[in-house]
Amino acid sequence: MSSHATPRTAKSPNDVNNAEQAKRPYQLEHWRRELTSKINVYDGELDDFLDIFVPSNTPCPLDLPNEQIAEDFHPVKGREVHHYDPLINIFSRIVADFPEDRRLSFCNTHAQELFFPFSSFAKDHHTSKPDISVSFPGVQLASRVKSPDWTRFSMVIEAKSTASEDAFDAKAGITRTDAIVQLAISARSLMFAHGMLAAYTLGIYGDMVRIARFDHACAVASEAFSIKSVEGLRIIQEFFWRFTHPWHPTPGAVVGHDETVSKITPAQQTWLREHLGSEADELLNGVDLREGRVVKVWDDREPKDPSSGTETEGSSSSSSSSSILETEDTGFDSEPKEYILFKLVNVNARLFSRSTMVWLGIEYDTAKSAEDLELRIIKEAWRQLVRIPESTFYRRLRKTIPLEQRIGLPGLVGGGDLGAREVAEWEAASKPPCRVLRPRANRDTPRPPPHPMHQTFTWRLTVGSDAKARERSHMRLVVDTVGRPLSRFRSTKELVTAIRDAIKGHRLALERGGILHRDISSGNILIVDKPRRNQSRGILHDLDYSSMTLEVPTSPTVADDSSNPPKLYHLRLEQDKPLEHASGHKERTGTYYFFAIDLLDPTMQTPLHQARHDLESFYWVLLWIVLRHTVYTHVAGQNACETAFVYGDDLKAVSTKRSWLVGPLPTIPGNEPLTELIYELTGQIYQATLNERWGTRTPLTYDALLATFNRALARDDWPVADGAIPFYHGDARTNSVYADRRPRGPRGSKRARDVEALQSAFTDIQSGEFGSAVPSGEPSNKRNRSNAASDPRQKSAAGSTAGSSTLVASSSRRGGGSTSVRAKSSGSRRGKGSYSSRKRSA
């Protein structure tokens, strides 16, 4: 089975091999390119911008601000730190007449570090220092907050001395992008800290102001306006009013908050400890429950086939362990379940991405006993609309693979697409009779906001409906199998076993379910602590980037027949409309470090993504973990990981991997099974890739790969308790993104320090596990690599290929990429410069 390729557009890396690599100009340029392609400036009226992007149905009844409150504000180049307190005074006077429970307060935080919102991942990210931080409604901040953290703030304000430093001015070039990076860092942190659907920032450039809104698809900024004019002050007042009066106001809420998320209360913390029982101390060790949250989970249902009156494949009527319920043909459950998410397992902190968060949690049901509740994995992600919802793949697996045969694969307990659910309700609300809402509709049903929030609409609202393919939808899924990341293996044999079982799961998904994973990475394989199904010690999860056959395979050979591959599940948008040129809108599939060589090679036509490419990725995953989390010897010493993995430059990445396959390999002292396994696997990858050019290619197959793993695991000389060692590179991620280690210049020269510090901080808008130095030893390689007889690359790879999945690639040219756009306005146009156009109501 093969799948269409996706554009070769590199994101900034999640994982960096050393501190120096993080500063390389080409990586910063990749980040800049990614960021600027998702920044829009709305060219409509400011009131239209507020109506569309800061929705509120509570009109502002206040008198217009007095322009005298800003008359003494005179920004001076090079003295921006002196501007913060005057700006705080202006903003405080603007909101002075707000109701007390909706009033904002402001504090100067330019010299105070704010760490990444989750303490267990804080070491992987730089701290930041927003110029001005804003409270939640009704909270009074001190003028200087001691030990500030993101949980206290709802918004940030960045101020620059001159209009030429405008972050959204297309003429400003590099300065523009670096300034946006500062705003994006804060927006990212706000969204992750509070589970927000969108975050807002203010940018002050001289005496000009822009309002910016960030979500997980893109950012949109208003036109610039003057803070020293009555009209400008009115816009700021209107913005603050709307921000503190969301469409469905609840205490302390702001526009962009997620109504399905709440903080863990003291009573819920007590309940959690009681229901975790004897495992509470271990599970909650080092956990700050203030970082956790309570979420609502609705279960999607499979739609019915209109021609047959029966549910389509994967419906909850199928035999499964899922708890997905059925309601009156609504497509969704009417009542949600609540889950307490108490420990963050993994996070992809990229801003414009899936922004995946993986939590350990438990259903919060006071009517159930502790014995009736199990730990679950809860995953939140923002899928591209051009991609099939992950829940669809899980339902296919549930239908095609009985529970007792499901090795290496998790099961879906519940959840689904919150964005699709909200869009269905939003569309149905204006269409009587309201079929979707009928089971719960009544006169008190609140009017929906102008646009959904769990599915982004920013591209459509700024560019037009043709940009729908760039939008994202909020997924929340509950999975039954709890596990640990590969980087936390307790023994190397456990590590190898987990990867072997994940390969088995990959094979099952393809041969039985017609599903090709396409994103094999170190983060997508978990080690299972308490295996229940056939003693599976590893699972392959995260099916976001998978592809699927239209029909369920009738036999393994159907999925493996590359000469006549099965039809793939067509890419579709909502309303089941096929999307033309869909691959051009999709992000590149997979995790860059683990791409197969054929998929990276820019000198060749990009082949269709096939099973053999995923099998090769399993090798790179094992190598990555070994080079980062074990003690080994290698001629490159502690830099061995760099000799195999390069990020961002396809030609260099291909050259590096090919060189690794023919160069010295590592030796793991005292661990002959793992050392031999790496040698044998390297030989198989060599035979399947490099030898192809001379016509002696040995296909990489499931049977051959699993046979190699099984031979290694059958050995009785594996070391015991040789668990993973921590992996840190030279930059320990403990210094501020704006910290200046040199002697400080005159007070007020913060701009120069910002730009320099950002050169080493650009990746921290995104999340990732950053590298470390492997404990160094005397570089040596005990194996004579020149001995052809002992080199597995000089002989056929071990293992039988009979009955395995051997696929031949076909090629296709890919294109794509996006550029910065200037948005078209929509809605009514009011008199520009007029502040009397807004209707006031008492």
TrEMBL record:
Disordered: annotated span: 1-25, 300-329, 436-456, 766-842
Residue spans of biased composition, Polar residues class: 1-20
Domain Fungal-type protein kinase: residue ranges: 333-626
Originating organism: Trametes cubensis
Transmembrane segments annotated in the record for this chain: none
Protein name (Swiss-Prot/TrEMBL): Fungal-type protein kinase domain-containing protein
Biased composition (Basic residues): 827-842
Coiled coil: none
